[in-house]
Amino acid sequence: MKKLFGSLFLVPFLLFGCGKPAPEGSDDLSVEISAPESPQYLVVFSQCNNAEPYRAAQNKLMEKLWGDYDNVELEIMDAQQDNSKQISQIETAIRKKPDLLIVAPNERGPLTEIMGKAMQANIPTICLERDIVEPNYTTFIKCDNFAIAQKAGEYVEKYLTEKNGEPKGKIVELRGLLGVDAEVQRYEGFHEVLDKHEGVEFVQEAVADWLQSKGRERMTEILRAQPEIDVVYGHNDPMAVGAYLAAKDLGREKEMIFVGVDGLGGNAGGIKKVMDGVLALTFIYPLCVDKAVEVGHQILTDPDFAPEETYVMESTMITPENAAEMYEKYTLE
Questions:
Q1: What would the pLDDT profile of 251-285 be if each residue is shown by its tens digit?
Q2: 3-state secondary structure of 127
Q3: pLDDT of amino acid 34
């Protein structure tokens, strides 16, 4: 009996010790219990190259969308288009044990192994927009580059037919970083449509690494060697715009049309370049970030969630007819 009394005697003190003390003279022994805090999550985004406008737009949207969650800390790493640097940065990220890793690979081959190490460390990993050699990821969010390039080829096919009475003409192609999945698919899809026409001649192909400055340099060299050009196809908008600026420098921009891919909003984006008559055509290549954040947040918060192996985002062709409408829709604030 003595033991039971001692236990009961301690109860009020234990109750008051766990919560807010009762006011003096009060008989209220109720306890104020604080709500548990939300889990804190670390998300690391390994970006291949902040300097590209498309990548800068990805970063901006990534910060905006993850910023809506007070319990998520986002860290963005910039590989500066350097495979070794991106590998080293992901190694550092793995040591931090993030709750989620998102990777936009610089190149598909070199990044495969390190992303496999992240998976081995049980870090959920989203492969964003660019593929790698082996499926070393939890999920892959992408757009169909081959289909985009096919549509670009069909547009050029029609343009050359209307201009020359049949599908014939001279084309310059500015390629992205060689070996990257987007570059390969944007090349192969375009050529599948146009290589079947004997009258279509690719008079020059040059690598400009996705950059406007290099597109301008390569195009300046090509213009000096090629007196006739009908179409310039850039694997992204910055290279196509660089080619336009080179042609304008030499007073030749009206001799040819310029086709790109990316279709970013904003005054410097590809949609506005179509509105301004710089580009004849571009394609909205989705940033894929909104889907990455949606899926990533489900991975963080729902242990039973099983993402699909691949999510394919839709693209939209941008022409002078719909450019103004698409500009309003896709321009980021």
A1: 999 999 999 999 999 999 999 999 999 999 999 99
A2: strand
A3: 52
Domains for the chain: give ranges and CATH numbers: 41-143+287-312 (3.40.50.2300), 145-284 (3.40.50.2300)
Q: Rounded to whole angstroms, how far apart are CA atoms 261 and 284?
A: 7
DSSP 202: E
With both helix axes pointing from N to C terminus, report the angle between 212-225 and 237-249 in degrees, rounded to the nearest 10.
50
pLDDT value of position 11: 39
What contacts 140, CB < 8 A, 6 or more positions away?
Answer: 126, 127, 131, 309, 310, 311
* pLDDT beneath 50, residues of the chain: 1-31, 35, 333
- The set of residues, in sequence order, having a beta carbon less than 8 Å from that of 292 and lying 6+ positions away, is 62, 102, 126, 128, 141
pTM for this predicted structure: 0.83
pLDDT, position 36:
52
Please state the φ and ψ torsions of residue 200, each to the nearest 5 degrees: -90, 125
33: helix, coil or strand? Answer: coil
Q: What angle do CA 7, 10, 15 make, to 5 degrees?
A: 125
Residue 172 tokens, joined: 């310059």
Burial class of 295 by CB neighbour count within 10 A (0 to 12, 13 to 18, 19+): buried
Dist. CA 216–CA 244, nearest whole Å? 8
Residue pair 276/248 in contact (Cβ under 8 Å)? The answer is no
Nearest one of 333, 317, 193 to 261, comparing CA atoms? 317
